[in-house]
């Protein structure tokens, strides 16, 4: 047996001194008299705990009820998707992407397809662009609704959870009608979608757009001016703009701190610059602002959805590119060239030219970056996912220090993490 | 249970040996040198850092990649972050790429300037026998977990990282670094051995020494079951 000689330097808040060595911050929380300091206590939350939203494990060092230090442990859901991706064809990776963020699967499907299309130089059809915008905005609402329901439940409001899940169920039905699956949608293909929208789907979506604001208003009436809600959230988990950028926060968490950074505006894709929508920005960077920002984002997503539905053009959903798109089934049955083409695409898979590309989209949780590297083969050399939840969660120790134990739950819920994507 | 030298070399990625050296001599796959004027930051980088900037290319249409000398990465990153005309204040991503075949590993930095709305990708290449580079944690807090992930998955050590330990794999994981090309998809140990190890996890592997200290549990530095056998026990006895 080898001797274990690992040196641990777990500091409370790893600050680096002038010489680059970590400086240990004294483990005395603010506002505690030195003579009242008691013995520190160790509390383990998770990995199986409803308030950690998955299999997240937090080890907390407490002084009384004040958190002195928080050490998150992740990896319990690790399935090595990135390694699996190196052994799969380009289209076969798409089912892996929606198992990462199962709360907004369509955004992940689209982001991966976009990265590969960029590397291949494929411009998708106008109809496909608008359909993907619809998919992504629909799943932004889908994901924010789960965050809203569980956040409210963690802070003690149960009704919101039921109302939010009723609305989510309608989006589940839209998913199911379009892709055949409720969560594991796998809706995109390189160069297009798995199919065109089914008949009647847009009407159902229109009905959702018309009626959903009503529920949103009811939920806001329950929460926004609620004294308990404000008391639990205001000035909890505050992070300033510079620090938020330094910690790599993105999405609503960053915008709640007052930084108006949104990939849809700063580096528009799929004609987002032609849609009329606003980016809500908070002021204080606390849990309450994160709540307000996400509530407004859902309304803005509805605006985008309405505009996308209005402009939804006719035409083919897939590009006319034999490198990626299968020929029509009737042609395969009657035409020899089409059959060979079909055979080669199915047996060899798509071949992507050597090179690399990075594609960022604004996912519901922040900036989602897909980085693909190809050597010209039918499998990627490297497929990297820059998951927003992973980076957002790394700021959790900084956010919870000095707060009460019960605030840890609220702060963790306000960050809106999904462990499938953190552990990958 | 001493591990064989071959196994250790394989875990460290050194088993690729002579064949790898040939491929490494052939050099990495790079595109043609891009027009430096196509990105505002590149001429300034070249003027300031001279021969530390090795290569500049454009990939996928509009993505600018700059290869730099790994020894000076921290200097370059710090300048890019703080210079008032660059302001790359947001480290989007930090990852690594292994092309396999003994070629050097690439550490990839995705930078984004929120004020100027432009991006830049930096790459530093590390030969397989010297996988060490300065940590960016003193510039960005976000580098902390990202570098831990790269260390976990690729075995690249980051000098000056405050807390460099595995993040996704368990701390007692002994099969090496999963995203390296020489790592087999199903791991190095047999399924039986993997199961045995998973079932024999003890307290030291679940909690870290500092956590145990706070919890009032005495930490056993030599791991479990080592009493009376192997070199670990001898050292423990001497101390």
Q: What's the quick description here?
A:
The complex is a heterodimer of chains A (424) and B (239). Chain A is α+β, with helices and mostly antiparallel strands and 424 residues long.
Which terms summarize this structure?
heterodimer; A: 424 residues; alpha+beta; Cytochrome-c3 Hydrogenase, chain B; three-stranded antiparallel sheet; 17 helices; 45% helix; disordered N terminus; B: 239 residues; alpha/beta; Beta Polymerase, domain 2; five-stranded mixed sheet; two-stranded parallel ribbon; 9 helices
Fold and architecture overview:
The complex is a heterodimer of chains A (424) and B (239). Chain A is α+β, with helices and mostly antiparallel strands. Chain A is built from 17 helices and 10 strands. Chain A has a single domain, classed as Orthogonal Bundle (Cytochrome-c3 Hydrogenase, chain B). A 3-stranded antiparallel beta sheet of chain A has the order 3-4-5. A 3-stranded antiparallel beta sheet of chain A has the order 8-9-10. In chain A, strands 1-2 form a two-stranded antiparallel sheet. With 239 residues, chain B is of the alpha/beta class. Chain B has a domain of 139 residues: Beta Polymerase, domain 2 (2-Layer Sandwich), CATH 3.30.460. In chain B, strand 6, helix 5 and strand 7 form a beta-alpha-beta unit. The C terminus of chain B is likely disordered. The interface between A and B is large, with 63 and 70 residues.
